[in-house]
Amino acid sequence: MKNIYPIIGMHCASCKALIEKMVSGVDGVSSVNVNFATEKMIVEFDEKVTSTEMIAAAVESAGSYRLVQQSDGMVMEPATSMASSNKMEASHEGVHHDHASMLRQNELDGLTKKVMLVGVGLLPFVALMIFMFVRFFNPSFMMLNLGVVNLEQFNYEIDVLNLIQFVLATPILFIGGSQFFTSAWSALKSKTANMDTLIAVGTFTAWIYSTVVTFLPKLLGNFGGGTLNVFFEASVFITFFILLGRLLEAKAKAQAGQAIQKLLHMQSKDAVVIRNGNEIRLPIGEVKVGDHIVVRPGEKIAVDGVIIEGTSSVDESMMTGEPLPVSKQAGDRVLGASINRSGYIIFVAEKVGADTLFAQIIKVVEEAQGTQAPIQKMADQISAVFVPVVIVVAGLSFLFWVTIAPSLGLVSTDVNVLQLGIYIATTVLIIACPCALGLATPTAVMVGTGKAARSGILVKDAQALEIMHKVNTIVFDKTGTLTFGKPTVNEFHQLNESSEEEILPIIAGIENMSSHPLSDAVVEYVERKGLKRLPGNQIENFSNVEGKGVSALVGGNTYSIGNAVLMKEKQIELSNDLQRRIDELSSKGGTVVLVGKDTQAIGIFVIADELKPDAHDVISKLNNLGAKVVMLTGDSNKTAENIAQQLGINRVISGVLPTGKSDAIKALKSELGENAVIAMVGDGINDAPALAQSDIGIAMGTGTDVAIETGDIVLLNGSLEKLVESIKISQQTLSVIKQNLFWAFGYNIIGIPVAAGLLYPFLGILLSPIIASAAMAFSSVSVVLNSLRLNRD
């Protein structure tokens, strides 16, 4: 069983590793992947050994996290994937999405209130810092001396200002920042550490030191000279900035993850169904296959089906990315979530619920956003050990500045080294941030896949999105990809004295027994001439010779219809004059289909498949991008070369049978070498093995389940222009990922050494824990905001 679960309460990259660790330890769980950016977990498990409840308990044992499951209102139902028989998926009717969104909104509202309350408690410390700032630049400014509380019986004094700060800071830290400590404690019980561990240790260290300075200052008198200062304001500002950063990050992540929500909102909530002759409005979940559904102008189409009455223009842009409405009439297919723009139509429901194309798109986008790009693996490996390493660095920094630095003359004798060591260690703990590393890739993938889906490009996983920009060789299957895939007969040449009325019905009768597109073209041609095809009961010994043609026995004569190879096998003579004529017809770019009767050639069909209008422009753009463009076809070399010349394609692999396409891709890989990254573009129907053999399989979708199943990337409306757009989206996404990773690594590589006091011996500069907390909080936000730029590019 494979399920997708929303997770509530995640706030750092270490949360991902912690939850994965706890869930993977549950018996029966075979794989688990948590996406920090989308806050979702994909877990595969044996339902005979474990259950959702056990997995939820494991999630909760990792800390203050919550898994949204069935008891929370999530409906589970069988997946529609053709490739799996034992998968389950969350219902895409919006139930669990809405509930998870509600829980996240409640969490966001609570965080907003907490930020506001902590912000109010921060005001006295802001006033104090302003006062100290003015005193620094104007020493003659009045002194702030509130006196001391003299406790003679204990032989020490308490500074009133420090006492006030203690009273104000303590509830802010332990109530306003309670989540840091509960999360750190949960991680400790799990024998691990997370981002909250750093925050809790850092703020508590600053608070406990300041408390000792306030109430027991004599304990610290043996660690050098100078005035003992308190860091209460550091604890308060750190709490505020980190809470504020998480609030902004949550809002930015919500904006980045709007692709799924926007798609869900496109779906109709109900439908007008004809039951017992009456029109009744039903919730979409009650619509059944076979129902007759009425759609008026301006209404959304509820499910997938076929029009049985009326004509209209339908806006399918949200499904295919095609901006112009499509004309529809009886017999045409309509898709759920599209909009009926003009006419009144009635259609019969063919696919409902999770079987609709819309539900499959939601499923694919959701799963793609939960996958991990290869470029993320290094960041995850670093994030997994980041917190322990930072704790060690903070501890070593403390020991260095307290024990070694004074002996090296790096610290003045009038400086209290214990105070200095705690100040530096706290800053190291606070500035370190694995969150930016954890968010760098998944946020960009989330926005990139969402942008692609809105454009009618379905990206199946993050790896496909990453590899797409590296593609340097693009192989096109000709039929249905560069062409419309519907061959038509352009010419028929009779070679004997028989009349068309005599010979064409026989040919049509034989071809009607084949399912090949060329056979369909011949049958349509004969019917357009008003001739009836020969009944099947008058045809004997029908044989379909794959890749060559068909043959049958009619009235004691053997008829063969196909290519020159079939004619040779049937010992049908092709004279030199006839061969020159065949070559001449082939050179025009059509497919020549020969007709033989016994041992004599009696006719020639010239069949052509019309090129798509955008094919030439797209090939030109790909050539300009530096990609090698190859056309793969079963046509003869002359026909293929003629079409390739029209399109500007330099390389042709012709005469390839459907079963040989995969081998052709394999041979091309071997020929081009290991640096070749090959994308195969096909219709996803008869070239699935070739799509799988290539580095990236791109299916030209036409609303079919097969296309969605076979391609790594699916171009939903079958437009070749979307191929170029998918490359651009991949390039933009990878560019943003690299920018994010550069910032995330650069921030920590520079920030941690500076926080550890690297500049202090040379410039006397120490980084304040307050500045460190602000930098840490906004480092994550900056990564998310940078990813959101993809929506504007």
Automatic annotation (TrEMBL):
Segments passing through the bilayer: 115-137, 163-185, 197-216, 228-248, 382-402, 422-447, 741-760, 766-788
Domain spans labelled HMA: 1-67
Record localization: Cell membrane
InterPro entries: ATPase_P-typ_cyto_dom_N, ATPase_P-typ_P_site, ATPase_P-typ_TM_dom_sf, ATPase_P-typ_transduc_dom_A_sf, ATPase_P-type_domA, HAD-like_sf, HAD_sf, Heavy-metal-associated_CS
Entry keywords, A to Z: ATP-binding, Cell membrane, Membrane, Metal-binding, Nucleotide-binding, Translocase, Transmembrane, Transmembrane helix
GO cellular component annotations of the record: plasma membrane
A Pfam family hit: Hydrolase
PROSITE patterns, per the entry: ATPASE_E1_E2, HMA_1, HMA_2
Superkingdom as given in the UniProt entry: Bacteria
Membrane topology annotation: Multi-pass membrane protein
Main location: membrane
A molecular function GO annotation: copper ion binding
Family: Belongs to the cation transport ATPase (P-type) (TC 3.A.3) family. Type IB subfamily.
Name the UniProt record assigns to this protein: Cadmium-translocating P-type ATPase
Organism of provenance: candidate division WWE3 bacterium
Gene it is expressed from: cadA
